[in-house]
Design a protein that fits this description.
This is tRNA (guanine(37)-N1)-methyltransferase. Keywords: Cytoplasm, Methyltransferase, Mitochondrion, Nucleus, S-adenosyl-L-methionine, Transferase, tRNA processing. With 467 residues, the protein is an alpha/beta fold. The protein is built from 11 helices and 19 strands. The longest helix is centred in the C-terminal third of the chain and has 16 residues.
């Protein structure tokens, strides 16, 4: 059992003070009357532990340590026993405890277990100081997302009067957190850059963070750019479908969670974000992760970028020289090192950027669907470059979007297809074999709003449409 267990006995729960205005850590000192098995012979500790563990008589309450120094007997140790065992009432002892006493392996004595603020979890403390809510608002606001050293919460209205108490407890109970903030409006409510107004609940107002994802390092100001740590798996799912040497257009790239890891996989990425702060952090990530040979950054409107990047790629593709890694002994002579370098140079291979994108990533779920009209005519006059004339297929579009929750998932998917069709100017159907369509649920962002990723091929009648 853990301190967070819903079945935690009342005896181990912290004192309650629902009128606390300022966090008083000393209030949470509590003495729990228990019993302990004192073992005087250190050679018998292992045997006694096994017996008590097997019988279930030892206190098993994480993170409380059951083995302690016995202050009543110098040099001895004791095992704290489970609640319900009374040292002065043998009738409450189990057969195992009684036998250990009979053979003089242990002595049962009263033990006062002192619990303090440090022993209880964040959930324990919050449940003890926050007011009891109605059933539909009962959930304790202990959930938070962490970005670098910043923890951010979205407090529901009933908890706002206690926001600083909540912030301080979160700060105390999470060693890697130094700043706690509360979002005061939803992402995108006030800014097209998906940033949000916030208030500091605990710690300094320092949102300059360093985060790691997919083997890459990103440095940015969390208050000025968009980042969601919960989407790491989703980012990887998409960029791991990119093949070495392919070209990718990341239209709303943010600080680069798709683009930079893809660059490490030797994928050519032209990345863009309208937010100047995101663009600056993206440039930093490109340099920091040494992917400048494969990833470039732009800062312009997404619709303009789709058209311009597609044309630029056809006319200014790059070539990267890939030399194999060579291991040179520390004891190698200068001649040996030179020979090894020459050999590596001769075996280097060249990777040339294609003239057409294989993927477009559109990660702006609130409005990316509105940019689909930019694809009309993007490959006009270039029909001969694609199937059936060659083996090259038209590019895949990875479109993130929000969708209202409907009665069934089939109804949601159908509505997504209808919305895509309306914006791209061509019928997009789930059963169209030419489109390779795959719509995946990503996460629930609100009780009645879901986030999806719709992947489909650019329809030929859109790609090759005339002016």
């Amino acid at each position: 059992m853990t301190m967070n267990s819903p079945d935690l006995p009342e005896i181990f729960r912290p004192p309650i003070n629902r009128s606390m205005q300022t966090l008083d850590r000393s209030f949470f000192r509590k003495v729990v009357p228990l019993a302990a098995a004192t073992v005087s012979d250190p050679k018998q500790l292992t045997n006694v532990r096994k017996e008590l563990d097997k019988s279930g008589d030892m206190l098993r309450l994480s993170p409380i340590r059951p083995l302690r120094d016995d202050e009543s007997t110098p040099g001895a140790k004791c095992f704290i026993l489970r609640a319900g065992i009374n040292a002065n009432e043998p009738a409450t002892w189990s057969p195992t405890v009684s036998r250990l006493v009979e053979v003089n392996l242990a002595r049962i004595r009263p033990y006062d277990l002192t619990l303090t603020y440090d022993d209880w979890t964040m959930h324990n403390i919050l449940e003890a100081i926050l007011p009891e809510m109605e059933d539909d608002e009962k959930e304790t606001p202990a959930g938070f997302a962490q970005v670098g050293h910043v923890a951010h919460v979205n407090l529901r209205t009933p908890y706002l009067p206690y926001k600083h108490l909540i912030g301080q407890v979160l700060l105390d109970k999470n060693p890697t957190v130094t700043t706690v903030i509360n979002k005061t409006f939803d992402v995108g409510t006030e800014s097209v850059f998906r940033t949000f107004p916030y208030e500091v609940l605990a710690g300094p107002d320092d949102l300059d963070v360093l985060v790691h994802e997919s083997g890459c390092e990103f440095k940015f100001n969390f208050g000025k750019v968009y980042w969601n740590s919960r989407l790491g798996t989703e980012h990887a799912r998409v960029f791991e479908t990119f093949e070495e040497g392919e070209a990718v257009c990341d239209v709303m790239a943010g600080v680069g969670p798709f683009a930079v890891p893809a660059g490490k996989r030797k994928v050519f990425v032209r990345a863009n974000d309208l937010n100047p702060d995101s663009h600056a952090s993206l440039q930093d990530a490109i340099k920091r992760n040494k992917v400048a040979d494969f990833v470039t950054a732009s800062c312009e409107d997404g619709r303009d970028f789709i058209r311009r990047a597609t044309i630029d790629l056809a006319n200014t593709s790059r070539t990267v020289r890939l030399a194999p890694k060579t291991k040179i002994s520390r004891n190698a002579t200068d001649e040996d090192k030179k020979a090894a370098q020459e050999a590596a140079g001769k075996s280097a291979r060249m990777l040339r950027e294609p003239t057409a994108f294989s993927h477009y990533v559109m990660n702006l779920p609130a409005s990316a669907i509105e940019f689909l009209d930019a694809f009309k005519g993007t490959y006009h006059g270039r029909e001969a470059e694609f199937a059936p004339h060659t083996s090259t297929k038209l590019p895949l579009i990875h479109l993130y979007l929000f969708q209202a929750k409907l009665l069934t998932e089939d109804a949601e998917l159908q509505e997504i297809c209808e919305r895509i069709s309306s914006h791209i100017g061509a019928e997009v159907k789930l059963d169209d074999p030419e489109l390779d369509i795959d719509i995946r649920y990503v996460r629930l962002v609100a009780p009645k709003k879901k986030m999806f990723c719709a992947t489909f091929r650019l329809p030929a009648n859109v790609a090759f449409a005339g002016p």
